[in-house]
Amino acid sequence: LDTAITQIRQPLYLRLSDGCIQNSYEIKLTNYTQNPQLLKLSLAGLSEATLDLGNIEVVTLRPEQQLRILAKVRQVVNNDKHEVSDFEFLVTSEDTTVAEKRIKARFYTP
Predict the structure, then answer these.
(1) Whole-model pTM?
(2) How many CB atoms neighbour CB 73 within 10 A?
(3) Are 87 and 43 in contact (CB under 8 A)?
(4) DSSP letters along 25-68, please?
(5) Who contacts 22 (Cβ-Cβ below 8 Å, separation ≥6)?
(6) Residues in the chain with pLDDT values less than 50
(7) Which of 3, 20, 26, 48 could form a disulfide with 74 if both were Cys (CB 3.0 to 4.6 A apart)?
(8) Is the peptide bond before 11 cis (omega within 30 degrees of 0)?
């Protein structure tokens, strides 16, 4: 299993009507195994943040398949201070022989 991430930088962040800040990312997943993989994505290291993958709860990758997923991360921001926070996307397979992947990312606020 291979992973890569690109932050969508136009715009770098959005302020939503509820006051949350949203950053968007494109996550690329590639299954190099010979077995289908059922994957779950989650966040670590970013307090009060939510992950929006649209209607995707579990990602199914066939052998040798590559897939790109749009991920939106939203966080409640209680100040107007510009901050950059490091966090990780976690990619977990239901196949216990495939190790969990941790993808480093950055979250930007105004």
Answers:
(1) 0.89
(2) 22
(3) yes
(4) EEEEEE--SSS-EEEEEEEES-TTEEEE-TT-SSEEE-TT-EEE
(5) 13, 14, 15, 16, 72, 73, 74
(6) none
(7) 20
(8) yes
How far apart CA 89 and CA 67 sit, in angstroms, is: 16
Residue 18 structure tokens: 């509820």
| Residue whose tokens read 């779950």 | 40
| Separation of alpha carbons 42 and 49, rounded Å | 10
For residue 96, is it left (φ>0), alpha (ψ between -120 and 50) or beta?
A: alpha
Residue 26 has phi, psi (to 5 degrees) of: -110, 120
Structure tokens at 62: 């066939």
In order of 15, 42, 81, 84, 107, the CA distances from 56 in angstroms are 23, 12, 33, 27, 22
| Helix, strand, or coil (residue 105) | strand
